[in-house]
Design brief:
By secondary structure, the chain is an all-alpha fold. It has one domain. It is 74% helix and 0% strand. It contains 8 helices and no strands.
């Protein structure tokens, strides 16, 4: 069933693309198209999760201490971004990355966090060639606009998901330690 859903979403994207190209004139190097394609990639990645495990590159999987202990994430507002996500309807974009009153296990939520992080990473990476092209062409307003979207839609979510994964690992470790001392 998951494969059918994934193929249906992919087919709908293809049909929508060709219908829009037929009835609306837009350029493939338009920053609007690039941002829409990036969002579509995130939607497709979300739909693909049950059948395809999207992973971060091995070198980037490990969370470094400077990410969680340093003040950079705090200085640029990553924890505030996380609170915004959790306390607003934005939470509904991916409810699989939350522990719901202990009903879900750490391993499942951690895997969902990692896949969400990887999806945002790959979405950001897919837009880089366009940003290089726009820079070479001197399309500075497009570079600025797409960079802003990249930061809000991909960079901040990746940083927040990494912090969340670290907190979840720490909580799981504390529970294991507590459970071990009770035995």
């Amino acid at each position: 069933m998951a494969w059918i859903r994934l193929l249906a979403v992919a087919a709908a994207y293809v049909v929508a693309f060709f219908l829009l190209r037929r009835f609306m004139l837009f350029r493939l190097d338009s920053p609007w198209f690039v941002c829409a394609a990036m969002i579509c990639f995130l939607g497709l990645a979300f739909t693909a999760r049950p059948v395809i495990r999207i992973r971060m590159p091995r070198a980037l999987r490990t969370i470094r201490s400077r990410e969680v202990d340093g003040g950079l994430y705090r200085a640029i507002g990553v924890p505030r971004f996380g609170r915004l996500l959790r306390r607003t309807a934005l939470r509904l974009l991916n409810t699989d990355v939350y522990m719901d009153a202990g009903a879900r296990d750490f391993v499942t939520v951690r895997a969902q966090l990692e896949m969400a992080e990887a999806s945002h990473f790959w979405a950001a990476l897919l837009v880089v060639p366009y940003m290089v092209h726009a820079s070479i062409m001197g399309m500075w307003s497009a570079v600025l606009g797409v960079s802003l979207v990249q930061v809000l839609v991909n960079a901040y979510p990746v940083m927040h998901l990494r912090l969340s994964r670290h907190r979840l690992d720490r909580l799981a470790s504390m529970r294991l330690t507590k459970r071990g001392s009770n035995v």
